[in-house]
Each structure stands twice: as C-alpha cells, then as structure tokens.
Amino acid sequence: MKTYVTPDCIGMILLSAFACMGMGYLFYDSWIAGIFLLPCVPFLFRWYLKWKQRQTRRRMLEELKELLYALSANLKVGYSVEQAWVMAGKDLEILYPQGSPICEEVRAVAAQLHLHVPIEQAVGEFAARADLEDLQSFAQVLRTAKRSGGNLIHMMDKTISVIVEKMEVEQEIQTLLAGKKLEQKIMSGMPVLMLVYLKLTNPLYMEPIYHNGIGRILMTVCLAGTVAAAYWGSRLIRIEV
What we know:
- It is a single chain.
- By secondary structure, the protein is mostly helical.
- It has one domain (7-236).
- Helices cover 84% and strands 0% of the residues.
- The chain contains 10 helices and no strands.
- It has helices at residues 7-28, 31-36, 41-76, 81-95, 101-114, 119-130, 133-148, 152-201, 203-210, 213-236.
- The longest helix has 50 residues, at 152-201.
- It is elongated and about 80 Å long.
C-alpha cells in the first residue's frame, strides 16, 4: 500500500518538533535540550506515516470485506464474474455514498472491463496497487480459475468465504486487544504525566534532579526507558492474522 505525503503531514512535523521541545524542557528543564532532541522528528514522522498506513489498511480491509460479500451474493444469483464485479461496485456506492478508496478502485476495474480488459488482469493490477495480502490472494485464485477453466463460481465462492473468515478473525482479535491497547497507552504516558504534575504542583521538588550531572543522567535513562517501553509495548499488542 503506497503512502503519500498529505498536507496534514506538515502539521505532524510541527507537532513532532513541539513534542521534542516539550520533552526536552520536561526532562531537563531546558529548551536547549529540546533542540538537541529535534533529530528525533524524522522518527516520529515515520511512526506517524506507519500508523496512518495501518489505519488506511484497516479501513480498506473493512471495505474489501463488503466488496467480497457483495461479489459472492451476485455470483450465487447467476451473474458472471465480470457482471458480479460491476454490480458489487454499485452496492458499495450505496454503502459508501461519500466515496472510499475501494469504491474508486472498483470503478477503475469496471472501466477496464468495459474496455475488454480481462478481469483477472484488472483485479491483479488493483491488488498490486492496494498491496493487501487478502486481495492479492483473491486475484491469484481468480487468475488460476480463469486459466484452468474449472467451476469458476464455486472456486470464487470458496475463496471469498475463506478470506472473509480470516478478516473476521482479525477483527475479533483487534476487539479483544482494544482494552490492552488502551492500558498500554495509559502506562506509556504515565511517566510524562507524573513529571507534568510535579512541575506544576511542586517545581522545587525536581530542582535537585535537573541541575546536576547525576540527575541529568538519570533523566536521560528515564526518557530512553519511557520511549523504549512505549515502542515495544505497541509492537507486542500489534497482532495480525
């Protein structure tokens, strides 16, 4: 799945720079320390792009599931694969009247079908652009079924059932992990919130840590530990089927 830089990325870069400056002031009581943390901005921006990519992927998987449901239903009532695809696109436009990435791609495939492009080729190109494993599996089975000349409708129906079942399992896992993800975010933010609380309520309490060498070393270890814990925590609860 390709990632494009959008205008909101500029805001994320500025927010990342502000976060680095804030962390420098919070952990070292110095804006100069924040300047030294600015090289971390590209890493935060990269994390944001990956997060956005995962969100886009989840949205496309949900829309793909609806597409496969509609395609399976149309095949069962007797449509050919090409007709079923066009009708499924119309069904998606009803579900997503504001438009969606999947709707645009389905219309693009339908337009290629009107130009007599083989559906396996059009869907294969769609799968390559979307970079979704489930869609690539569907495109591969469609290409094989077209070449073998077997019971195309039966093969498509079985493939769609397997792919949709896999998507539903992944959604159930994400639902079960929702509480753990919230706990991980709270635990990752607790050290920062505690420092904010201490600086606001009792700034003198932090003075011995901020203005001596041992204190700065300890705060550096705390900052590194907080970042490492947040990173590994997010990786541990990221489960994909």
